Amino acid sequence: AADKINLIPQDFFAELCEQIIQHLNHKIPGVNVAELCQRIQTSGIEINVGDLAKIANIVSFLFSTAARNNLSTEELVSTLGSAVSALPKHAVQVIRHVWNEQGKSVNVSEDARNMATMGQFVDIKWKLGVAMSSDTCRSLKYPYVTVTLKVADPSGQITDKSFEMTIPQFKNFFKQFKEMAAVLETV
Q1: How far apart are CA 8 and CA 114, in angstroms?
Q2: Beta strands in the chain (DSSP E)
Q3: pLDDT tens digit string along 65-123?
Q4: Which stretches make up the COMM domain (predicted)?
């Protein structure tokens, strides 16, 4: 992972670290690695989403472990220096700066760790479509609803989950959401 971190410009790595700290502080639901990766690629750096996700997981683990052990900035940097000699200098500088500025605010409580074992809902999008025909059937005229859920997994990676439903399935889905809303109104 250290050779991949070396590819990432300092400003993008700093943005990744800032987003991870914000995620650990429950200010944002997760780190949108796909969007950040696209911006890095647009700047001319060749890196894939999987590698950037691994780097995000490593940095997230680093910050959460440092928070759990109440490490000072110097303790964190010296631990990094002894454990990971291949880490690029600019990455260590960014980690030092971000931890020095925001490390004290990271609170990794037991409740937060238990809650983080499942994903967090971020956004929902839907669209109505009609299948007109296919190779095997000339006239379908079959309406369907495509739903895309944006979910932050426990590590903070934001992913899209898509599925299609028939109109009766969507009506049932909608009915269940109305029931949930009614129950939430009573709370």
Answers
A1: 32
A2: 120-131, 142-152, 158-166
A3: 888 888 888 888 887 776 555 677 888 889 889 988 887 777 655 444 444 456 678 88
A4: 120-187
Q: Say how far apart CA 125 and CA 152 lie, in whole Å.
A: 15
Q: How distant, in Å, are the alpha carbons of 23, 57, 65, 113, 152 from that of 155?
A: 9, 7, 13, 10, 8
Locus of tokens 């960014």? 94
Using DSSP, state whether 159 is helix, strand or coil.
strand
* pTM, to two decimals: 0.62
Spatial neighbors of 33 by CB under 8 A, at least 6 apart, are 49, 52, 53, 56, 157, 158
Pick the CATH number of 118-185 from 1.10.150, 3.10.450, 3.30.300, 1.25.40: 3.10.450
For tokens 């400003």, name the residue.
11
Q: Which two tokens stand for residue 151?
A: 């979910």
Reference 81, options 69, 95, 70, 67; nearest CA is 95
Task: Give the β-pairing of 142-152 and 120-131.
Answer: antiparallel
